[in-house]
Amino acid sequence: TEQTQPRRALNSLTGKVGGLCTRMVIAFVLKGVAAVASFGLNWLIARHFGAHGVGQFALALTTTVITFTLAMAGLDTILVRTVAIERARNRPGVARSAVRKIVLHVLPVALVFGGLLFLGRDLVATYIAHEPTVAPMIGVMAFCVPILAMSKLASAGLRGVDRVGVSLAIDGPIGTSMAAVLLAAATFMGLA
Asked: Helix crossing, 175-188 with 4-72: angle to 10°?
């Protein structure tokens, strides 16, 4: 049994390192796909809107991200920790309950914040951004506040159950690719 104990420890370590390498490769590939999708989205915006439009888009996007971050109130971080802790304690029901409670808190707040941003787009564009022409873009982006919040919570919940690859996919290439496809469709239909 003396030889089998070190061998078991070595096999266990090798298995963990192999799993870590696999996750690292998946994360790297997903980050690369996200970078390509982001480049494509930025190229599409630059080609369609020009330099001034890119600046307006960046301003509208930043305003939207700030609004969604305020709506989240840090609950995405709490969700990751809570789900991971309850999973480690083998209490999946408590973890699901935490996810449900946080979603039921964040969704209405994100809807209200997005609605307020939409209704106040002219005020925000004129008095905060000092760029009145960005108001229509802020109005369109305001609808993304609840979508961003829910995707961030989905990503956080998945990280808590050690599904980092899927979480990275939601945070990166899926969201960016969806934005590129929607912008391309809106451009094709003459809406953007």
From this structure: 40
Residues in CB range of 141: below 8 A, 6 or more apart = 60, 61, 63, 64, 117
Helices H, strands E: what count in the chain?
8, 0
CA terminus-to-terminus distance, the chain? 71
Other residues' Cβ atoms within 10 Å of the Cβ of residue 100: 10
Neighbours of 162 (CB within 10 A): 12
CA dihedral 76, 79, 80, 84 (to 10 degrees): 180
> What one-character-per-residue DSSP string does 110-142 give?
HHHHHHHHHHTHHHIIIIISS-GGGHHHHHHHH
Cα(95)–Cα(190) distance, integer angstroms = 45
pTM of the model: 0.75
pLDDT computed for residue 6 by the predictor: 59
Which stretches of the chain score pLDDT less than 50? 1
Query: What pLDDT shows up at residue 73?
Result: 94
Identify the pLDDT of residue 103.
93
Please state, in angstroms and rounded to a whole number, the distance separating the CA atoms of residues 112 and 100. 19
Give the per-residue pLDDT at 132: 93
Please list, in sequence order, all residues whose beta carbon lies within 8 angstroms of the beta carbon of residue 13, skipping any fewer than 6 positions away. Answer: none
Q: How far apart are CA 179 and CA 104, in angstroms?
A: 25
